[in-house]
Amino acid sequence: MKNSISQIKKALIEKKISVGELYDEYLAKAKSGNNNSFNLVIDRENNISSINDSQNRYDNGNPLPLDGIPLGIKDLFCTKGIRTTASSKILSNFIPNYESFVTQQLLNDGSIFIGKNNCDEFAMGSSNETSYFGPVINPWKNKNSQKDNLVPGGSSGGSAAAVAEGSCVASMGTDTGGSIRQPASLCGIVGLKPTFGSCSRWGIVAFASSLDQAGPLTNCVEDAAYILNSINKHDFNDSTSSNHQREDYLVDINNSFEKKIKIGIPSDYLEDVSDDILNQIDNTKKALSKHGIEFVDVKFKTTEYALSTYYILAPAEASSNLARYDGIRYGVREDGESLDDIYLNSRTKGFGDEVTRRILIGAYVLSAGYYDAYYRQAQKVRRLIKNDFQRILNEVDFILTPTTPNEAFKIGDKLDPISMYKNDIYTVPTSLAGLPGISIPSGLSKNGLPLGVQFIGNYFEEKSLLQLAALAEKELSFNE
Amino acid sequence: MSDIDIKRISYLAKLKLPSEKEEFYSNSLKDIIKWVDNLKKVDTSKTEPLHNVTEKTVSIRNDEVSKSNSVDDVLSNAPERAQNFFKVPKVVE
Do B14 and A344 touch (CB under 8 A)? Predict the structure, then answer.
């Protein structure tokens, strides 16, 4: 069992370890680079003033909430003075002059960044195979074919693998259609996607702005609450940032619920799934029933339209967002005789296959003659999907689903984009509705690989969602 | 679904696909558009499009001047610059 943030803080307070020693311990693992989970690792010298400041605060008896905690940061967050690539060739030389809102909050709370985690290029992928810097390898192996390298999931695959291999205590990821929850599930860790509008998108390389949301990948639910306490704040620089009152997510996290809780299980999600996946739902149901939680069957009317809606809206927004990469203002320029040639050459050579494909889908569904039939229709169906979730959440407090339809698969196994897109079947609907979702490890498959379940809560009700996840975690924890 | 004019779409996206890859992208795009075509059967005649999922009012800050993004900051990542400008090939004859 890896150490949690509260256990590490206790050791630092009791002087069983120094901030520098702690950093070195994680740095050594991050540097070994066996799973390619980092695009960039930050040497101790470059973090020395943060390490010393943090140690001083411990010595003076007033440490900050995340003081000295070594974190990984998905290479999609702009970090001031530290190369930020989005795992793309076109940004491979980009050094931001500013810090993203979310990472600034983590720095303000005393955490120290170990490095930038590998991810799918511009966060477009479900297996971390689209990165310009090569695929990330899942630290877990199939016990029946130990030699195979498996995908960690994506797009926050480097973040998930880094937490699972122990090269950072937690990592910041982003989730557009499942990019935190799906890799968390395949790597046997916790992944939280907060409600859209909770954590500012300012300074995160944009993919699909109506869906992108930052969130933590951690070893345990309590650690997710620690990180959420730090990053969940209103920000004027993000016009979709909500200015509601935030709660303390650590208080009450281990308490039992005062009222009777009802959880809905969508039976249509469980048609044609493997026994491995069904077992996760059954085990979770059994474990939580012991605590007096009631389970009921619920039925969605829009599930079959979720992936189609997502694969129109997300590429459309990506196609607009990625128009900024032109080889003129930042990023890699490929020369050409005219200005237009520079645009064409820089973009064509700077983007990988999957990003090119998504830009083309987006350009098509937004183009004259197709806009109403595809883009506008998808926005309307998105409202029906949201209404569908609201109807169900009027009947139940939470929804329980599998996180993924399968365990981690072999690198190179899924070549056809549609079969890859289907990996996000359980996470995409929640993203379209903008609701918070958390994936926690729920058990092992027949091949000895980790699987997860997803709990979905109501808008901005992360506090009770984390409370439920913490309760389930205690019952479902398994040894590696 | 009508045929996809991959040359036109890639031009709209400012991409110059190598000719040997045109068919690859064209087929891939056709498959995906066919796959998402099921949305057409959903009755949305009484549904408004959804833009911002939480539909919270956009919060507006006070209009106060703040200092950010100096010229040097903005130009620091430029592939080519000349004094305080981004440098590009001549665009006016």
Answer: yes
